[in-house]
Automatic annotation (TrEMBL):
<protein>
    <recommendedName>
        <fullName>TonB C-terminal domain-containing protein</fullName>
    </recommendedName>
</protein>
<dbReference type="InterPro" id="IPR011652">
    <property type="entry name" value="MORN_2"/>
</dbReference>
<dbReference type="Pfam" id="PF03544">
    <property type="entry name" value="TonB_C"/>
</dbReference>
<dbReference type="InterPro" id="IPR037682">
    <property type="entry name" value="TonB_C"/>
</dbReference>
<feature type="domain" description="TonB C-terminal">
    <location>
        <begin position="254"/>
        <end position="317"/>
    </location>
</feature>
<dbReference type="Pfam" id="PF07661">
    <property type="entry name" value="MORN_2"/>
</dbReference>
Amino acid sequence: MKLQITLFLLFLYSWIGHSQIGPNDDAIYLDSLNNLGNEKNFKFIRVVKEYAEDKDLYDVYFYSRSGKLVQRATTSNKFFMAFEGPYIYYYENGNKQKMETYSDKRVNGRQFEWYENGSLKLETDVQYDKKTKNSSTKIINYWSANKEQKVINGEGEYEEIETIPNSNSAKFSVKSSGKIKNYVKDGLWKGKSEKPSYTFYEQFENGKLVSGKRIDSLGVEIQYIEVLQKPKPKNGIADFYRFVGENYNTPAVQGLKGVIYATFVVDKEGKVADVKIIRDLGYGTGAEAIRVIQKYDQWIPGSFKGEPVRVQYSLPITIQSNY
């Protein structure tokens, strides 16, 4: 094991080069969905600087397979990424692609996007409501690829690209266009998707979706009133938490306490899949978490524009041994 770790670090030193991974840093493989990967399927390598130290904030770097920096951020939790402050994405040429601003572990405040040539594309403002736990987005300014400003101070025509959440491999996107009025979507919006192939029409009033309709390549129509519906337990999220708490068997180890971090996917049929442990406390705590999560099968699947989709969940489990 020690030899494998040494070889892995040597590989990273030569592969990333100038980033200089230090003895107190942590580096792991991530696949295309940001799950733990391996040397064959990884898309990124994530490096948490000064991981071995006890700090309020940690610098996090993401490198592509070619060794270039593609993302950087700061996190308040080195085990389970809880981002704070700017989260910057980069193009392959090194120019900024997007800057998200996090506050209290949520995207909140001013956000920016750029074209690959460095010209500004989009300025938005995201506000997270702690009471409703919902976010709202204001479109402030938008420029086309030829630098023509299409939205000025919340008024104009806008072209949007939405990523279908948690696709199996490539992150497929859908494109739509319509009017921005008083910083939000208004009137009829039209769009299309290539994979899967469909067109859609959405009617908005003051930023709220009134109705949506998608038409697939065979002419089949699906009506919807929410763009994204997250998976949910049939008896509510409290029932899921209760089930985990009542069925988790804590190892009989004196003084054992801490938090396990797990991720899992609710698939298109509402079944739990791809349960993975991000942080394990040892003594079989991770394996027990996988067993309990897989056992709960009372989920309603999520959907995107009326189409069932796979959606990933994160779950912290607090362990406190009574022995």
